[in-house]
Amino acid sequence: AAHHAGDIDRALAAYRRVLAVAPEHAAAHGLLGTGLLQLGRGEEAVPHLEHAARRSRDDANVLANLAQAYLALGRHAQAADAFRKASRLAPTAAQFQVGIAAALALDGKLSEADTLLARLCVRFPDAPLVWLNRGHVLRDTRRLEPAIDAYRRALDLDPSLMDARNSLGAVLHALLRFD
Question: Looking at the whole model, is its pTM more than 0.85?
Answer without folding.
Answer: yes
